[in-house]
Amino acid sequence: MEKSCSLLIYFDKGTPAIANEIKEALEGNDDYAKTEAMKKAIMLLLNGETLPQLFITIVRYVLPSEDHTVQKLLLLYLEIIEKTDAKGKVMPEMILICQNLRNNLQHPNEYIRGVTLRFLCRLNEAEIIEPLIPSVLQNLEHRHPFIRRNAILAVMSIYKLPQGEQLLVDAPEMIEKVLSTEQDPSAKRNAFLMLFTCAQDRAINYLLTHVDRVPEWGELLQMVVLELIRKVCRTNRGEKGKYIKIIISLLNAPSTAVIYECASTLVSLSSAPTAIRAAANTYCQLLLSQSDNNVKLIVLDRLNELKSSHRDIMVDMIMDVLRALSSPNLDIRRKTLDIVLELITPRNINEVVLTLKKEVVKTQSGELEKNGEYRQMLIQAIHSCAIKFPEVASTVVHMLMDFLGDSNVASALDVVVFVREIIETNPKLRVSIITRLLDTFYQIRAARVCSCALWIIGEYCLSLSEVQSGIGTIKQCLGDLPFFSVSEEGGEVSDSSNKVQQVNATTVSSRRPAVLADGTYATQSAASETAFSPPTLVQGSLSSGNLRSLILTGDFFLGAVVACTLTKLVLRLEEVQPSIAEVNRASSQALLIMVSILQLGQSSVLPHPIDNDSYDRIVLCIRLLCNTGDDIRKIWLQSCRQSYVKMLADKQLRETEEIKAKAQISYAQPDDLIDFYHLKSRKKTPLKFHPSLGNAGMSQLELEDEVQDDLKRATGEFIKDGDDANKLNRILQLTGFSDPVYAEAYVTVHHYDIVLDVTVINRTKETLQNLCLELATMGDLKLVDRPQNYTLAPESSKQIKANIKVSSTETGVIFGNIVYETSNVHERMVVVLNDIHIDIMDYISPAVCTDVAFRTMWAEFEWENKVAVNTVIQHEKEFLDHIIKSTNMKCLTASSALDGDCGFLAANLYAKSVFGEDALVNISIEKQADGKLSGYIRIRSKTQGIALSLGDKITLKQKGGS
Fold first, then answer.
1. SS3 string of 397-443?
2. Which end of the chain is more exposed for a tag (fewer CB within 10 A), N or C?
């Protein structure tokens, strides 16, 4: 069995030192050679060597050395050598060490005394320590603080030994005297820590006696005071009122570490609004005053926790939290915006939006490289605000439309989606948005943004002037027709502007499979995104128009969108234009444009011909304009908009349902006591009344705190784990009922830790000696504690706890055995345990992301696991629900898109792990003629572990039916 280790040193095993060489070096007179030899000896001992022959050499040649480094290494050597024999008795040669240690404790040099006292803190053998105690106690009164502080620690560690109370009977009393006279901050902190650990009542008494001077104490001592308060208040909640006053007095301490701890302690102990407000204020101060990004992120996490439990108080702090946007770090900005968006109310919405607008304007300066990404985050935040509070939309929509031509495609796309939603939900803004969109349309540089903007123009241009402007804008952006000309020699020559565009336009996408909105694949032959390089080309492209440039790169999907938009505008023009001649002129111009696009698509000018979908769409538009019927007109002018309205309503319904689900609260237990605020007595007698606390009346803070506690009790918040049936499900049987030792484990998974609570029962009539639970792990799991030996009486039981650290999201296995001895049999008996499989489901939780973000991640992530569908379930929707339940993931595909019965289903699922990893799943299934389901489930992630583990889980669970 491994020994406990208090020392860790890196050692390269490639250079083993021979014991004889070390011995020769130690016997010499050169201090440097001795130092190196001692280092080698220590490293060999730490790596499992015993080196018994060196001990006498070290006693003879190293003990007398006056060199400080050699003496320090000697103490490290003594710390790690075996000091007891097989029976646990101290070896006789250790007496040689005692005299040396006593001499060191009386040495004239302070450093030697200090490190020797430090060494005693790690010594567990009472026989060695006992003769040294008088020398240790003398050092408590030494003039040098370095020695006093280490002497106090030595007293504490001796007192904590199993026989410590007999060795140092009056240690707490002595340390209390030292504490009252000590001036050095570190020594004072060590003395208070000793009382806190070994004699808690004395520590509390000292604290309450000097309660007025606590703010003046040093940072180290204040931290220990806070730890004491946390411990006392957890064990005796009735007394926390008087301690909270001490915490609030420490909130003004000069040390940032102290005020952070104060705020955390306040939140953990009290629910009183005054206390929570004080903690929130402290966090906000730290957020602004600290320059370290890690500190800011930790503080934002704390504020996020406060937001969940005390939203009303956090609403008042929203502007303070927003000031964290001044940090250039994107993670801090993202976290800040996430917190702020959940604290928006009608009272603060205008202030928040004003701040966000200022930040958007700042991103135009272009000083920082990630300005585009930050602008995208701000636009999404403003979008969210405008959806929740439509009245602010008018103040932001026109400013954001300046960014439709943004070089960051994702940012421009967010703006156009925002504009599309606002124009539908805010009819009053329709005219001004359409006018502004037509004015700025020529600036748009990305195909997807153009497509969305064209849809808005086709749907929301209603008056005669708007329809005419819409057609005029599209014509202007397409430039002169045709798109290419044929030379006299009969060869085809592309338009001159085409040459310019092909040189300057950069095609962003390639011929890799594209992911459609429903999660299925489509081969993408034409470029879907074209972002323009630097301003030099803008001049050239403006003369020929942005739509022309994009279509000439082979984007025929955009050409089909242009055709549909022109068709809608011409159909609407028939309704609003009295002159038939004007309608016919517009119609013929639209037909000419569509035919030109088809001609370009079928020519050899471009490397790729037009795709079939776009061709069919444009041909449909041409037929429609040549022969219009009322039914067709209704579909094109009304049904499209109605579908969009239905989509928005569905989205809003889902968001409302999510908010309702979050707002569900636990209910009171039937026999819980409920106090009434107005009937509460304002008199209170503290359990341990102390004169320094003044009169025993209840302060406003204590009253608030009691009321909040009662409120929590009434709403069942104190009862976290009420689901006992769920607990029973997590108990795993490790051995059989017929084994001499029965064992079962209760597994608790908490983020980065797994705690195994193992119950071991001796089923025999004999005493089991040296019983040890030996565990080993596979995967990214690490055992924290070394196993201990226990003695188990006949038919008795023992609870053994084992801690395991987890470092990534993948399925791990814990296996092991129970080893024990009995008095009759000399050999050790072994009972092999069942394996414990750690489920990936404990680490992942459902999460939400936008379709755009999902598709971006899907393209980026390199690990894909493809699982073929093999199930007895015969209904597509039922199978999807089964997979969602089995994998603990969130379905991103709207329920309205999954309705109906067409024999085919495609859906996207998403989850996030506690380590921040993303898990993406796409399900594509169809029903065969024989009623069975077939298809594939694709899993993608950044790391291999999560993709493989999730695939194994799905393979195991997908059968269903049982």
1. HHHHHHHHHCCCHHHHHHHHHHHHHHHHHCHHHHHHHHHHHHHHHHH
2. C
Asked if 129 contacts 167 with a C-beta cutoff of 8 angstroms, the reply is yes
The span from the first CA to the last CA of the chain, in angstroms, equals: 45
CA distances from 229 to 215, 356, 647, 686 (A): 15, 41, 55, 16
Phi-psi region of 495 (alpha: psi -120 to 50; beta: other; left: phi over 0): beta
Report the alpha-carbon distance of residue 6 to residue 4 in Å, rounded: 7
Sign of CA dihedral 240, 246, 251, 253: negative
Which residues sit opposite 864 in a β-bridge? 940
Which DSSP state fits 820?
E
The CA-atom distances, in angstroms, between 823 and each of 769, 788, 797, 818, 828 are 8, 19, 19, 17, 10
At residue 816, the 3 state secondary structure works out as strand
Query: What whole-number distance in Å separates Cα of residue 394 and Cα of residue 568?
Result: 27
- Contact (Cβ atoms closer than 8 angstroms) between residue 156 and residue 172: no
Residue-wise over 182-195: b if at least 16 C-beta within 10 A, else e?
Answer: beebbbbbbbbbbb
- How is residue 683 annotated by DSSP? B
The answer to whether residues 274 and 235 touch, using CB atoms and an 8 Å cutoff, is no
Reported pTM: 0.68
* Rg of the chain, C-alpha, whole Å: 38
Which residues, listed in sequence order, are joined to residue 884 by a DSSP beta bridge?
none
Both tokens assigned to 307: 């937001």
Surface-to-core class of residue 357, CB atoms within 10 Å of its CB (0-12 exposed, 13-18 middle, 19+ buried) = middle
Which tens digits make up the pLDDT trace of 565-587? 999 999 888 888 788 888 889 89
Tell me the DSSP string of 445-490.
Answer: --HHHHHHHHHHHHHH--SHHHHHHHHHHHHHHH-SS-SEEE-TTS
| Bridge partner list, 485 | 493
CA 791 to chain centre: 43
Strands (E) across 128-178 are located at none
Give the Cα separation of 897 and 909 in Å (integer).
Answer: 14
| Residue type, position 661, single letter | A
What is the phi/psi pair of residue 179, to 5°?
-60, -40
pLDDT value at residue 506? 38
- Nearest CA-CA partner of 469 in 573, 381, 579, 384: 573
| Residue 760: per-residue pLDDT | 93
Q: What token pair was written down for 387?
A: 């959806």
The per-residue pLDDT for range 92-134, each reduced to its tens digit, is: 777 778 888 888 888 888 998 899 999 888 888 888 888 888 8
Peptide bond into 64 cis (omega under 30): no
Q: Grade residue 528 by pLDDT with cuts at 50, 70 and 90.
A: very low
More confident residue, 116 or 810: 116
Q: In 682-734, which ranges are continuous DSSP H helix?
A: 700-714, 724-729
**DSSP-based three-state secondary structure for 505:** strand
Give 908's DSSP letter: E
Backbone angles phi, psi at 768, to 5 degrees: -100, 125
Rounded CA-CA distance 219/222 in Å is: 5
Token pair, residue 546, equals 């942005």
Are 459 and 424 contacting, i.e. CB atoms less than 8 angstroms apart?
no
Helix (H) or strand (E) holding 890: strand 890-891
What is the identity of the amino acid at 344? I
The Cα–Cα gap between 734 and 829 comes to 16
C-alpha to C-alpha distance for 445 and 253, rounded to whole angstroms = 55
| C-beta pairs of 421-427 under 8 Å, 24+ apart in sequence | 421/383, 421/387, 421/648, 422/386, 422/390, 422/393, 422/397, 423/456, 423/460, 424/641, 424/644, 424/645, 424/648, 425/387, 425/390, 425/393, 425/648, 426/390, 426/393, 426/394
DSSP at 637: I
> Of 116, 81, 89, 83, which is closest to residue 100 (Cα–Cα)?
116
Specify whether the CB–CB gap between 145 and 186 falls below 8 A. Answer: yes
- To which H or E segment does residue 882 belong? helix 876-887
